[in-house]
Amino acid sequence: MVFRSEEMCLAQLFLQSGSEYDCISELGELGLVEFRDLNPSVSSFQRRFVSEIKRCEEMERILVYLVHLLFSFCGTDVQEQLQRLEMELSEVAKNKEKLQRNLLELTEYTHMLKITRTFIHSRSRALGPQYEEFPTMETDSVTGCTGMQRLGAKLGFISGLIQRVKVEAFERMLWRVCKGYTILSYAEVDENLADLDTGEISKSVVFLISFWGDQIGQKVQKICDCYHCHLYPHPENDEERADVLDSLRTRIQDLNNVLHRTEDYLRQVLQKASESAFTWVLQVKKMKAIYHILNLCSFDVTNKCLIAEVWCPVSDLANLRGALEEGSVSLKLLWNQKKKRCSNEVGMIQHLSQCRVSF
After folding, report:
1. 227: alpha, beta or left, given left = phi > 0 and alpha = psi -120 to 50?
2. Distance (Å, rounded) from C-alpha 37 to C-alpha 196?
3. What is the pTM of this model?
4. What are the tens digits of pLDDT across the range 297-343?
5. How many CB atoms sit inside 10 A of residue 130's CB?
6. Which of 284, 302, 297 is nearest to 48 (CA)?
7. What is the C-alpha to C-alpha distance for residues 230 and 159, in angstroms, rounded to an integer?
8. Dmax of the chain from CA atoms?
9. Which residues of the chain form CATH 3.30.70?
């Protein structure tokens, strides 16, 4: 027939312990042989090199995290370098995330103070000093006291931010639960802010709720918690508000400076890592593939070596022997350093049978 392969043979390899990894690596670079599975009845989790494959998968996970950061910012032993780099990057990323969250909280607080100030002033001008919020004399079922008793109760405020889509439902819930004994004022923030929990950019609304008595205040607090509102302390007067705003401006400026330095440092680390990251990806993939091949071999307890069976072209047997000898070089060097006797042959090839394989 026209379409015939090279003359093939089934060869058996004996790989001494300590050099099997390098020998398989050399064979893999040549791409001359196809390995047979000598452990077909053994599950994947019970094979000899399972722990090494798990280590490779852990390094792959670290590299995926590293490459993701490299694309986000930049568009000794490999495992030790990767683990050390992951710890450093993870710590810097966590610190950056914490700083960004603090910055967002301070920004929200600043918007809240500026907007609620207009609520207080507009309400005092509209109502006047003689305004009575609860003038009725009847006993109320919610608070258990009369309107005149409520006038002696302490006026409280709860202020914060809520997502724009939740405002209508939030207002209805306040009215139903508190029987109308609260005053709600709100205004939309001009700037789009990221959500503290999800990180999504959305429109937020600043609100100010005034109420009489601790019992009503507790109900309002629970409603705010149900709607995941971001609550911030409300100043007692304009002087306190001005002091808090000045403090917030200073802290926001300091946080921005720290964030810029953190991002510069993270960018430098990633740029340095980018020089080796893709080389590491290739090395880890090769390492994992080698251990998968080693799991196809059987272990000879008597001779303490691995036995492999491969299909190889007869014309490439010399190259196969050369690859095995090249793979044994590192083992020989190690034995020479330790002044131990080593064998000149690392692998022996025995022909089991010869055949012609058709495609």
Report:
1. alpha
2. 53
3. 0.50
4. 888 877 778 888 998 888 888 888 888 888 877 655 554 544 443 33
5. 5
6. 297
7. 9
8. 110
9. 7-48+295-356
Query: CATH top-level class for 7-48+295-356?
Result: alpha beta
pLDDT in tens, 127-160: 444 334 444 434 454 444 544 344 555 678 889 9
The first and second tokens of residue 36, run together, are: 């047979």
Please give the structure tokens belonging to residue 270.
Answer: 């990633």
Taking only the tens place, the pLDDT of each residue in 337-350 is 444 433 333 333 33
CB 216 within 8 A of CB 64: no
